[in-house]
User: What shape does this take?
Amino acid sequence: MANSLRTNALKFKLLDIIFLLSASNLVFGQIHYSIREEMDPGTFVGNVAEDLGLNIRKLSARKFRLTSADRRKCLEVDLEKGILVANERIDREQLCGQMPACVLSIEIVIEEPLEMYRGEVEIIDINDNSPRFPESSILLQMAESIAAGARFPLESALDPDVGTNTVTDYKISPNEHFGLKVQTAEDGTKTAELLLEKPLDRERQSSFQLVLTATDGGDPQRSGTARIVITVLDSNDNAPAFEHEVYKVSLIENSPKGTPVVTVHASDPDEGPNAEVTYFFGNRASQKVQDLFSLDPRTGEIRVEGLLDFEEASSYSLDVHAADSGSPVIAGHSKVLIKVIDVNDNAPEILLTSVTSRVPENTVPGTVTALINVIDRDSGENGQVQCQIPKNIPFKLQTLSNNHYKLITSGLLDRETVPKYNIPVLAWDSGSPPRSTNKTIQISVSDVNDNAPRFSRPSYTVYVMENNAPGASIFRVTAFDADLDQNSYVSYSFKGNLQNPPVSTYLDINSMNGTIYALRSIDYEHLKNFQIQVQARDAGVPPLSSSATVNVIILDQNDNAPLIVSPSARSGSAAAGIVPQSAGQGYLVTKIIASDADSGQNARLSYQVLKATDPSLFTVGRSSGEIRTIRGIVEQDATTQTLVILVKDNGQPSLSSTVTILFSISANVTESFSESSNLVRTLETVSDLNLYLIIALGSTSIIFLAIIIFLIGIKCKQDGNITEGYNSPICCYRLEDSNDVFTRNSVPKDSSNYCGQTVPDTSRYMVCLSPESSKSDFLFLKPCNPALSQEQR
Assistant: This one.
C-alpha cells in the first residue's frame, strides 16, 4: 500500500532534497510515495491532487500530465480522481536489478499557470523469488588424505530479491563428516564453504550425498536446494592456493579490448600433474561478465574483452578457480573485484519539459516560456553541468534547482524587429576535458496592434485638370502598417468635409486601396483648390489610425470664350457708334473691353480686325483693344462703316468671340444722330421691329448724352481752376459725342492715356470721373478743363 512522504521519511532514503520554489507563475515541489512490486495494474500509489492541494475538477483543463525520464511508463495519473496509479505490474528486479534502492523519478506538470512538481516513487521489494542454485547437483571430489578442516567453496544460490529478501543463510543435511561455514563477502552476499570436520576413509565410504539448502530472510521465508555429491579419492591431497584471497583492481571505463586487468597466480605444493594449475571462471560469474573479461587458463591473466560502461555497472566481482591436473582434481578459489573508474564519456542531455512556442510581443519581462532539465549520466565532476544562452537576446535562464532551469523573458519584444527567436541552449559538464551539447528552442513572437498605419509623406499635392471625367481616378495614397494579419489591414476614408461644398460631392475614396476618384467634373472657375484629410485605419483591436493631407489644385482648361463687355451689342446684333468727320489719324474711336473667366495664358486676350468696310480707315490695338483711325476721314469715305472685331484668347486650342460695330461718320452730333438713324433704317438685315428698337435706343442714348453734357457744363463752369482739374487724382476720359457709352463696365483699364489731351474739335469734351463714381453704379463726370468747357458751350 502506498504511503506518503510524511510516514516514510525515516524509512526510505531520499535521492534528492525536497524543495518548493515559487517564481512568478511557476511552482516546484517534491512528493514521495512507495508501492510494493508485483501489484496489479490500477493499484493506488498516492493522491497527487490532495497532497499538492490541486482542484480535481480543473486537472484536465490545466493539462495535468505526468512526465518521466524513464522510457517505461510504469505509472499513470487518473485525471478524474487526481490519483497516481500503477500502469502495469512492476517487477522490481527487472526494473532496478540488484540496486539497493529502486526509486522512480516523476515530474508532474500543469499549466495556466505553469507549475511543476517533482516526486519519487519507491518500489518496495517483496519476497517473490526463491533462492536458486546454478546447478541442481554439485559434484565434488575429495582425496581421502585431505586433513580435517579443509574447506571446499560451494556455488552460491542466486536470489534476485534485495535486502532481507535475498539469501541470508545456508544449511546442509546432518552428517558426521561435513559441516558448513557461511561467510559474508564485502559486497554483502552470503557464501558457503563445505568444511571437512572428520577425516575421510574411502574404504569405509567412497561417496556422500548431502542436501544444501539456501534460505532468504523474507516473510514468508523462501528456500532453494541443491544436491552435493562427494566422491572420495586417493592421493592428490593438496589444492592450489592463490596468492590473495581477493584481488582488487581499478579499471577505466571504455578501456579498449585486450587491456590487461590483473594476473592471478595459484601454487600447488604437489608435484607432477598434481601441481599443474589451470585457471577458469567459476559458475558464479554471469555470462555478461564472461563476455566482458577473458581469463588465460595457463597464465591466469585477465583482459578486457568487451565494452566497459560505468553508467551500466560501477564494479564487477569475478570468481576465479585454479584446478590442478591431479587425480582427483583439486581446485583453489579466489575473487577478483574490479572497480570501474568513470570518465567523462557522456555529454549532457537537454530535456525540454514544457515550451511555449508563441509569445505575444507585449509580454512583460519575467514571463516563463520554457522549462529545461539537463541530465548527465556521468558521476562526480563529470556529471556536474552548467547551462547558458546568448546574452544579446531578450531572454535569460534562471536556475530552479539542481540541473533544472526556466527560460524567461528579460526585455521587451518587438515582432516588427525580430519575429522569431532561435535560442541556442548550451550545456556543458565539469569533466576534463568537458563535454557539451546544445539544443535550439524556437519561439515565435505573435503580433499585437502596436503600429499605426504610416503614409509615405505627411502631405500630397495633386493636380487635376478641370472638366475631368466623372469616375476617373485622380490619385492614390498608400499607408504601410508594420503589423501582421488583420492588424496590418488598412482601410482608407476621408476625415472631415469641405464647408462649401462637402468633399463627398466631389471626391470618393476606395477604402481598400486608397484610390481617390472624382465623383463629378470640377470647374476651375468655381473651385480652384481645396484640401482633404485622408485617414488610414487598421483592423486591429483597438484600431490605430493616422492621417495625411491631400492638397488638390485644379488646373485651368481653356473652356471659356472671351466675353465682350463693352461696347455692348444692341438688339443682339451690333453696337452703334458715331465718329466725327473731323477725326484725324490716331483718333481713339472706342475701346473693346473683354474678359475671360479662364486664367493664365487662357485669359490672355488679343484683338484683331476680322472684317471692315474700309480696312484702311480703322485699326485695333492687339493687346489693348483700342480702335483708332489709321488716317484722317475724307469726304470720299462712306458715312457708314462696319467693323467686325475678333477677340481670342491664348489657350490651346484658342477660343474667340466677335463683336460687330457700326460707325456713322457725321459732321455734328445732331446730324450724326440723323445719319445713324438713317443708317439703321437702311440695313437690309434689320427687320421693321428691329428698326423701331434701334430708333428708340438711339433716341434714349442721345437724350441721356445731352443731359450728361449739360451737367458737365454746369460743373465745369463752377470749377475755376484748370490746374486743379488736371492734377486731380481722379482718372479722366474723353467724351466724343455719343461714341463712348459710359457705364462702369466700360471704363478703360489704362485711363492715363486719355487724361489732359487737347480737344481739336468742339464736338469733344474732356471729362473726369468723380470720386462718387466708385461708390455708386452711376458714373459721375466733370470737365478736366473748365475754361475749355465754357468755350465749347
About this structure: The longest helix spans residues 688-718. The chain has five domains: 5-124, 137-341, 349-446, 454-555, 563-792.
